[in-house]
Amino acid sequence: MKKRTIYLAGGCFWGMQKFFDQFEGVLETEVGYANGPGGAPSYREVCDNSGHAETLRIEYDESIISLSRILDLFFTVIDPLSVNRQGEDSGVQYRTGIYYNDESLLPEIESVYRRHEKTAGTKLAVELLPLECFHRAEEYHQKYLDKNPGGYCHIPGSFFGKGSAGKTV
Protein backbone atom coordinates (compact mmCIF):
# COMPACT_ATOMS: atom_id res chain seq x y z
CA MET A 1 0.00 0.00 0.00
CA LYS A 2 1.25 3.47 -0.91
CA LYS A 3 -0.55 6.14 1.13
CA ARG A 4 -0.73 9.65 -0.26
CA THR A 5 -2.59 12.77 0.78
CA ILE A 6 -4.23 15.53 -1.24
CA TYR A 7 -6.31 18.52 -0.10
CA LEU A 8 -9.29 19.65 -2.19
CA ALA A 9 -11.39 22.76 -1.69
CA GLY A 10 -14.62 22.31 -3.61
CA GLY A 11 -17.20 24.56 -2.02
CA CYS A 12 -19.06 23.18 0.98
CA PHE A 13 -16.94 20.42 2.47
CA TRP A 14 -19.92 18.31 3.65
CA GLY A 15 -20.76 17.05 0.17
CA MET A 16 -17.14 16.74 -0.86
CA GLN A 17 -16.53 14.38 2.04
CA LYS A 18 -19.62 12.26 1.36
CA PHE A 19 -18.75 12.09 -2.33
CA PHE A 20 -15.13 10.97 -1.88
CA ASP A 21 -15.83 8.57 0.99
CA GLN A 22 -17.62 6.27 -1.42
CA PHE A 23 -14.62 5.38 -3.59
CA GLU A 24 -12.47 2.32 -3.12
CA GLY A 25 -8.92 3.35 -2.31
CA VAL A 26 -9.96 6.43 -0.33
CA LEU A 27 -8.69 5.44 3.09
CA GLU A 28 -9.70 8.43 5.19
CA THR A 29 -11.21 11.87 4.78
CA GLU A 30 -11.37 14.83 7.13
CA VAL A 31 -12.93 18.24 6.64
CA GLY A 32 -11.14 21.36 7.71
CA TYR A 33 -9.99 24.86 6.89
CA ALA A 34 -6.96 25.46 4.66
CA ASN A 35 -4.68 28.15 3.33
CA GLY A 36 -5.80 31.05 5.43
CA PRO A 37 -3.85 33.38 7.71
CA GLY A 38 -3.25 32.88 11.40
CA GLY A 39 -4.03 29.94 13.62
CA ALA A 40 -6.92 27.49 13.70
CA PRO A 41 -10.18 29.33 12.98
CA SER A 42 -13.65 28.42 14.17
CA TYR A 43 -16.43 27.80 11.66
CA ARG A 44 -17.89 31.20 12.58
CA GLU A 45 -14.56 32.89 11.81
CA VAL A 46 -14.36 31.08 8.46
CA CYS A 47 -17.90 32.29 7.65
CA ASP A 48 -16.84 35.80 8.66
CA ASN A 49 -14.09 35.83 6.00
CA SER A 50 -11.06 34.51 7.89
CA GLY A 51 -9.54 33.76 4.48
CA HIS A 52 -9.55 29.97 4.88
CA ALA A 53 -11.14 27.61 2.36
CA GLU A 54 -13.45 24.76 3.38
CA THR A 55 -11.22 21.86 2.39
CA LEU A 56 -11.25 18.08 2.37
CA ARG A 57 -8.14 16.13 3.32
CA ILE A 58 -8.10 12.85 1.38
CA GLU A 59 -5.75 10.05 2.32
CA TYR A 60 -5.72 7.45 -0.42
CA ASP A 61 -3.95 4.28 -1.53
CA GLU A 62 -2.47 5.09 -4.92
CA SER A 63 -2.22 1.38 -5.75
CA ILE A 64 -6.06 1.34 -5.78
CA ILE A 65 -7.05 4.86 -6.89
CA SER A 66 -4.78 7.27 -8.71
CA LEU A 67 -4.44 10.94 -7.99
CA SER A 68 -5.54 11.61 -11.58
CA ARG A 69 -8.77 9.71 -10.92
CA ILE A 70 -9.37 11.63 -7.70
CA LEU A 71 -8.82 14.94 -9.49
CA ASP A 72 -11.07 13.95 -12.40
CA LEU A 73 -13.79 13.08 -9.86
CA PHE A 74 -13.20 16.45 -8.17
CA PHE A 75 -13.77 18.26 -11.46
CA THR A 76 -17.09 16.43 -11.95
CA VAL A 77 -18.55 17.93 -8.76
CA ILE A 78 -17.34 21.53 -8.98
CA ASP A 79 -17.81 24.43 -11.34
CA PRO A 80 -14.14 25.16 -12.07
CA LEU A 81 -14.92 28.57 -13.55
CA SER A 82 -16.84 29.92 -10.57
CA VAL A 83 -15.00 32.33 -8.27
CA ASN A 84 -15.73 32.01 -4.54
CA ARG A 85 -19.00 30.17 -5.20
CA GLN A 86 -20.31 26.64 -5.60
CA GLY A 87 -24.05 26.07 -5.87
CA GLU A 88 -25.89 28.42 -3.52
CA ASP A 89 -22.83 28.92 -1.31
CA SER A 90 -20.79 32.06 -1.87
CA GLY A 91 -17.82 33.61 -0.13
CA VAL A 92 -14.06 33.18 -0.09
CA GLN A 93 -14.40 30.03 2.06
CA TYR A 94 -16.18 28.33 -0.88
CA ARG A 95 -13.38 28.90 -3.38
CA THR A 96 -12.01 25.89 -5.21
CA GLY A 97 -8.47 24.67 -4.87
CA ILE A 98 -6.06 21.80 -5.13
CA TYR A 99 -3.51 21.99 -2.33
CA TYR A 100 -0.55 19.63 -2.06
CA ASN A 101 2.11 19.01 0.57
CA ASP A 102 4.24 16.70 -1.55
CA GLU A 103 6.04 18.29 -4.52
CA SER A 104 6.32 14.90 -6.24
CA LEU A 105 2.53 15.07 -6.88
CA LEU A 106 2.78 18.34 -8.80
CA PRO A 107 3.46 16.96 -12.33
CA GLU A 108 0.38 14.72 -12.15
CA ILE A 109 -1.74 17.53 -10.67
CA GLU A 110 -0.59 19.98 -13.37
CA SER A 111 -1.30 17.47 -16.13
CA VAL A 112 -4.90 16.94 -14.98
CA TYR A 113 -5.35 20.67 -14.36
CA ARG A 114 -4.12 21.59 -17.87
CA ARG A 115 -6.40 18.97 -19.44
CA HIS A 116 -9.46 20.38 -17.65
CA GLU A 117 -8.41 23.93 -18.51
CA LYS A 118 -8.13 22.94 -22.18
CA THR A 119 -11.59 21.35 -22.05
CA ALA A 120 -13.02 24.51 -20.45
CA GLY A 121 -11.32 26.68 -23.08
CA THR A 122 -10.41 29.30 -20.51
CA LYS A 123 -8.41 29.84 -17.34
CA LEU A 124 -9.79 27.89 -14.37
CA ALA A 125 -10.74 29.59 -11.10
CA VAL A 126 -9.32 26.61 -9.18
CA GLU A 127 -6.30 27.48 -7.05
CA LEU A 128 -3.30 25.20 -7.50
CA LEU A 129 -1.02 25.86 -4.55
CA PRO A 130 1.15 24.22 -1.92
CA LEU A 131 -0.72 23.57 1.31
CA GLU A 132 0.08 26.39 3.74
CA CYS A 133 -2.03 25.11 6.63
CA PHE A 134 -4.88 22.74 7.39
CA HIS A 135 -6.94 22.91 10.56
CA ARG A 136 -9.44 20.16 11.34
CA ALA A 137 -13.02 21.44 11.43
CA GLU A 138 -15.21 20.97 14.48
CA GLU A 139 -16.49 17.44 15.11
CA TYR A 140 -20.06 18.21 14.10
CA HIS A 141 -18.82 18.94 10.55
CA GLN A 142 -17.12 15.55 10.17
CA LYS A 143 -19.32 13.17 8.10
CA TYR A 144 -22.07 15.80 8.38
CA LEU A 145 -24.29 14.48 5.58
CA ASP A 146 -24.17 10.97 7.08
CA LYS A 147 -25.40 12.44 10.38
CA ASN A 148 -27.87 14.80 8.64
CA PRO A 149 -29.07 13.11 5.43
CA GLY A 150 -31.31 16.05 4.51
CA GLY A 151 -28.49 18.57 4.74
CA TYR A 152 -27.82 20.95 1.84
CA CYS A 153 -25.10 20.19 -0.67
CA HIS A 154 -24.26 21.65 -4.07
CA ILE A 155 -23.42 18.14 -5.29
CA PRO A 156 -26.55 16.40 -6.65
CA GLY A 157 -27.71 13.44 -4.54
CA SER A 158 -27.48 11.24 -7.63
CA PHE A 159 -23.67 11.44 -7.30
CA PHE A 160 -23.72 9.68 -3.94
CA GLY A 161 -23.60 5.90 -3.85
CA LYS A 162 -22.17 5.48 -7.34
CA GLY A 163 -18.60 4.84 -6.24
CA SER A 164 -19.51 2.04 -3.87
CA ALA A 165 -21.85 0.52 -6.45
CA GLY A 166 -19.01 0.31 -8.93
CA LYS A 167 -20.65 2.70 -11.37
CA THR A 168 -18.68 5.34 -13.19
CA VAL A 169 -19.25 8.94 -12.19
Fold and architecture overview:
With 169 residues, the chain is α+β, with helices and mostly antiparallel strands. It has a single domain (3-159), classed as 2-Layer Sandwich (Peptide Methionine Sulfoxide Reductase, Chain A), CATH 3.30.1060.10. Helix content is 25%, strand content 25%. It contains 5 helices and 8 strands, in the order E-H-E-H-E-H-E-E-E-H-E-E-H. The chain has a 6-stranded mixed sheet, covered by helices on one side. Strands 4-5 form a two-stranded antiparallel ribbon. 34% of the residues are buried. The mean pLDDT is 94.
Annotated CATH homologous superfamily = Peptide methionine sulphoxide reductase MsrA
User: Termini, distance in Å?
Assistant: 24 Å
- With strands numbered from the N-terminus, the spatial order across the biggest sheet is 7-6-1-3-2-8
CATH class: Alpha Beta
Count of discrete structural domains:
1
Global morphology: globular
CATH architecture: 2-Layer Sandwich
* Gyration radius from CA atoms, angstroms: 15 Å
Q: What is the percentage of strand-forming residues?
A: 15-25%
Assign the CATH topology.
Peptide Methionine Sulfoxide Reductase, Chain A
How would you characterize the largest beta sheet? Answer: 6 strands, mixed
Structural class: alpha+beta
- Low-pLDDT residue spans: none
State the helix count. 5
Number of strands: 8
Give the overall pLDDT as a whole number: 94
Q: Percent range for helical residues? A: 25-40%
